[in-house]
From TrEMBL:
<feature type="domain" description="NAD-dependent epimerase/dehydratase">
    <location>
        <begin position="3"/>
        <end position="251"/>
    </location>
</feature>
<dbReference type="InterPro" id="IPR001509">
    <property type="entry name" value="Epimerase_deHydtase"/>
</dbReference>
<keyword id="KW-0299">Galactose metabolism</keyword>
<comment type="subunit">
    <text>Homodimer.</text>
</comment>
<dbReference type="GO" id="GO:0033499">
    <property type="term" value="P:galactose catabolic process via UDP-galactose, Leloir pathway"/>
</dbReference>
<dbReference type="GO" id="GO:0003978">
    <property type="term" value="F:UDP-glucose 4-epimerase activity"/>
</dbReference>
<dbReference type="Pfam" id="PF01370">
    <property type="entry name" value="Epimerase"/>
</dbReference>
<dbReference type="InterPro" id="IPR036291">
    <property type="entry name" value="NAD(P)-bd_dom_sf"/>
</dbReference>
<protein>
    <recommendedName>
        <fullName>UDP-glucose 4-epimerase</fullName>
        <ecNumber>5.1.3.2</ecNumber>
    </recommendedName>
</protein>
<keyword id="KW-0119">Carbohydrate metabolism</keyword>
<keyword id="KW-0520">NAD</keyword>
<dbReference type="InterPro" id="IPR005886">
    <property type="entry name" value="UDP_G4E"/>
</dbReference>
<comment type="pathway">
    <text>Carbohydrate metabolism; galactose metabolism.</text>
</comment>
<comment type="similarity">
    <text>Belongs to the NAD(P)-dependent epimerase/dehydratase family.</text>
</comment>
<keyword id="KW-0413">Isomerase</keyword>
Length: 328
């Protein structure tokens, strides 16, 4: 198939593109490079474009005879989404509609969508299964949930088939060390911890140690980005084989606290990474752990890098050799 990957220059997108290059599919990356990095795209065709540009989207579908879409292009910062809801609804919902409408106009009816654990909000039932109630606590989470619902309506009306992948905490880097996480500003725990280890940051704060968890710090389900990428390939292949629209969680089913992440990272880098205790970050749920049984059962997804130490080792390989990210 000719597969359009929107947001293919981003952290997760670039790992999806890399894994797709090892399959028989053709990859066409579509990215506006606002946050993504051209250097992160390790092969295939690249089109610099925005989802707001309907004419370019349509032209791209026709020129490359697109068969299926993996849609990752989005804004994804929880905090920013609360301050700038318009930006999130515009980009994640309205620009996403341009993509869906271009798909329908070109008779392309298979899409794998990059969704998030943020659609659930602060749930009490652990592990989280796909059918639990969805009460997102951020505009970001809402924008992703709205898009899932829109795809459902497009399925009913136009026969669009979608697989929505709700990621938990994407982390780690490709084993080659050639690509990895490079956000500006960086807000994610593991890169921040490793930047502290490299002396690139003065301070590392643990956001709250008074949560009802085993050591008081928040517990998250960290999943390796290559395992995430493989799930996209299984999903797009399943759609090609006629799979009905489905939603899957993607996590390891294990939770690690912020303190445990810092301790494991200290072990990996071989020095004690110092952290101070800070205030809670507004909106952080205490514990988020996924049940990914559905995708394991239905698509045979089998994560290879589940162990936290392995995840941090791959991230460390990237950060150590690219302290400034993709910048030379
Ligand atoms: N944390 C710290 N110090 C830091 C950074 C993070 O203690 O300097 C803590 C956070 O409070 C949280 C944990 O580390 O408890 C993980 O934080 P991240 O920012 O790495 O990840 P989140 O769990 O907040 O967010 C992730 C995704 C979001 C998604 C969300 C779903 O990055 O896109 O899960 O809840 F929306």
């Amino acid at each position: 198939m000719n597969i359009l990957v929107t947001g293919g220059a981003g952290y997760i997108g670039s790992h999806v593109v890399k894994e797709l290059l090892d399959t028989k599919h053709q990859v066409i990356t579509y990215d506006n490079l606002q946050k993504g990095h051209k250097e992160a795209i390790l092969g295939g065709i690249f089109v610099k474009g925005d989802l707001a540009d309907k004419a370019l989207l349509d032209q791209t579908f026709k020129k490359y005879d697109i068969d299926a879409v993996i849609h990752l292009a989005a804004d994804s910062l929880v905090g920013e989404s609360m301050e700038k809801p318009a930006k999130y609804y515009q980009n994640n919902v309205i620009n996403g509609l341009n993509l869906l409408d271009t798909m329908i106009a070109n008779d392309v009816k298979k899409i794998v969508f990059s969704s998030t654990a943020a659609v659930y909000g602060d749930v009490k039932e652990i592990p989280i299964t796909e059918d639990l109630s969805k009460k997102p606590t951020s505009v970001y989470g809402k924008s992703k949930l709205f898009f899932e619902e829109i795809m459902q309506d497009y399925d009913q009306a136009y026969g669009l088939k979608y697989i929505s992948l709700r990621y938990f905490n994407a982390s780690g880097a490709d084993e080659s060390g050639k690509i990895g996480e490079d956000h500006n500003p960086e807000s994610h725990l593991i890169p921040i911890v490793l930047q502290k280890a490299l002396g690139l940051r003065e301070k590392l704060a643990i956001f709250g140690t008074d949560y009802p968890t085993r050591d008081g710090s928040c517990v998250r389900d960290y999943i390796h980005v290559t395992d995430l990428a493989q799930a996209h390939i299984l999903s797009v292949n399943a759609l090609a084989e006629g799979k009905a629209s489905t939603i899957y969680n993607l996590g390891n089913g294990d939770g690690y606290s912020v303190k445990e992440v810092i301790a494991t990272a200290s072990e990996v880098v071989g020095t004690n990474i110092e952290a101070v205790i800070g205030n809670r970050r507004p909106g952080d749920p205490a514990t988020l752990i996924a049940s990914s049984n559905r995708i394991k059962r239905e698509l045979g997804w089998n994560p290879q890098y589940g162990d936290l130490k392995t995840i941090i080792e791959t991230a460390w390989k990237w950060h150590k050799n690219h302290p400034n990210g993709f910048k030379k």
